[in-house]
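Supplementary Methods S3. Complex input for the zinc ion-bound model.
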Amino acid sequence: MNRPKRHNWLGALLLRATGSAIGLSRQHSLAVVNYHRVLARPDPLLDTEPDVAAFHWQMALLADCFNVMPLHDALRALDEGRLPPRTVCITFDDGYRSVHDLALPILRKFKLPATVFVTSGFIGSNAGNMWNDRIIHAVQSLPAGTLDLTDVGLGSYSLGSLEERKQTAQRLTEAGKYLPPLERDSLVKCLDRMSGMHHDALMLTPEMLVALERNGVEIGAHTISHPILTSLDDESARAEIVTGKRQLEALIGKPVRLFAYPNGKVGQDYDARHVEMVRQAGFFAAFTTAVGAITGDQDRFQLPRSRPWDRTPFRFGLRLLSWMALGNRQPR
Ligand SMILES: [Zn+2]
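Predicted complex, serialized as structure tokens:
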């Protein structure tokens, strides 16, 4: 077993001092870290998501070297010029059950607030898993050989080595993102038929959602069904944004103030029409998946949000600080 990674006192001191020096030299900026799920154990097909051990050291580092604030409070503090140096917010997208089962105990241990952006249509016992997770399930469980998807117009794929499965999962997920909903549905149904229908339920139940909210996790909106908004007509896009918000508000009995664009790439996944719809729906702020930190001069409805991809605590912390130092002047 790997020794758990820990940041040492010298690393922590350096990160705090560097963060404070950045704070002295410019107006403070805010880094928002985004996760999807936390894995019970490492999974080679999901290697961009942390397992419990990695999530634990990342939270230990944030608790020790940064100021972690609730997202809404941090945005207000930024507006009012009173954001502390080295401020970070923690977010999760989509509404995975592992946020409740695996992340929440660690967040509570370190007394860290967080926000989860929930795709409202997947909350509930019969809602099933998201299409991308159904692709991963099929690629994980199908026997070695060739995966023939010519019937649904997607050619054939290799399921030999682990590396081939990883590439197949990535290619099918990328292809699936931009398929029209009906074609994507036939792809996923076809994979379900081949791989067996049994899936572990991955998404939050309504009870878990309420429990998260009662434990200091803010609930944000992320549409009903996680569409690429630019692929929808305006009426459907507006319904995804507005009804997604209302469904979550009905569950938690509170206003939902924050929104994250599904997939989150400007121009590709959402455009100016959707920014305006989100503004009109009464949200306080909205988030993309652009790399960088939030500064006071950005569009409140297109705020960047990203996660350092580094595998050691010091580098992870340093990358957050570099985003804070650069603000929205990110190298492309
Ligand atoms: Zn998402």
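The CA atoms of residues 228 and 246 lie 20 Å apart. Residues 93-94, 222, 226, 262 surround zinc ion (CB under 6 Å).
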